[in-house]
Amino acid sequence: MAKAYFAWKPNNAMNDLKKPKNANMQEYIIEATVKVPDNDFAEFSKHLLRDQGFIKEHKEKMYCKDRIMHVISVISPNSPFSILVEAEGYGYARYAAFLSHGEAAMLKAKAMVKEVMEKAKENQYTIKIPVFANKKFETGRLIVTMGIAADIKIPEVNAALLRHVNGDWGCIPKEDAISNDESIKGGGRILSAYYSNKGLIFWIITETDRSVTTVLLPSEY
């Protein structure tokens, strides 16, 4: 679970949140994201103790339970950071934390995985490790990257995996295909490449010790 340094009754985001002196590391869950205009965000970040309408509108979503902060994330279109707020029923940022864009991107990625898994439970996607008969080598644990989860449908991944374990290496060069064949017999890394129905190329890599197989986009390598 994500963690951040939450300051109690901070006044200025840059002075009191970016380098907090009296703040506690807390686990948190973002319950809502509130987007405000750049000018309003600038004023809010300078005067965190002022009452804000957007905080009052989301008061019920902010609370602390079992030492976990349930917060709103306040952002603007062009700010390099966002502010996490737990108002404790008030109209201002009674507790607040600084969240950089890098940290926010990581949270977004985690949320993407959660969304895919929730859709899987609703049978919108079928996410499972397929069982292959007559495979030419062991695949170990299956890892599907964020890019694959976002851009390629699971049935396409399963179809490519079936080709992979049966020695159909897809669209790799001939010399790499020969290398894969030799790796099956003598041990070695195996890499295959395939195109999705939308023309997006993706790779499947089985490690030398056969402990793990990863499905990924070339840009994620």
Summary?
The protein is α+β, with helices and mostly antiparallel strands.
Structural class: alpha+beta
The rough form would be described as elongated
DSSP helix fraction: 25-40%
**Oligomeric state:** single chain
Order of helices and strands: EHEHHEEEEHEHHHEEE
> How many beta-strand segments?
10
Instruction: Figure out the total of helices.
Output: 7
Q: Rg, please? A: 24 Å
Task: Give a description of the structure.
The chain has 221 residues and is of the alpha+beta class. It has 2 domains: 3-109, no CATH class; 141-220, no CATH class. Helix content is 32%, strand content 29%. The protein is built from 7 helices and 10 strands. The strands form 2 sheets. It has a 5-stranded mixed beta barrel with strand order 1-2-4-5-6. The longest helix is centred in the middle third of the chain and has 21 residues, at 101-121. The protein is elongated, with a radius of gyration of 24 Å.
Keyphrases for this structure?
single chain; 221 residues; alpha+beta; 2 domains; five-stranded mixed beta barrel; four-stranded mixed beta sheet; 7 helices; 10 strands; 32% helix
SSE topology:
Blueprint: E1 3-8, H1 13-17, E2 23-35, H2 38-46, H3 53-57, E3 63-65, E4 68-75, E5 81-86, E6 95-100, H4 101-121, E7 141-144, H5 146-151, H6 154-165, H7 174-186, E8 190-195, E9 201-206, E10 212-216
Parallel strand pairs: 2-4, 7-10
Antiparallel strand pairs: 1-2, 1-6, 3-4, 4-5, 5-6, 8-9, 9-10
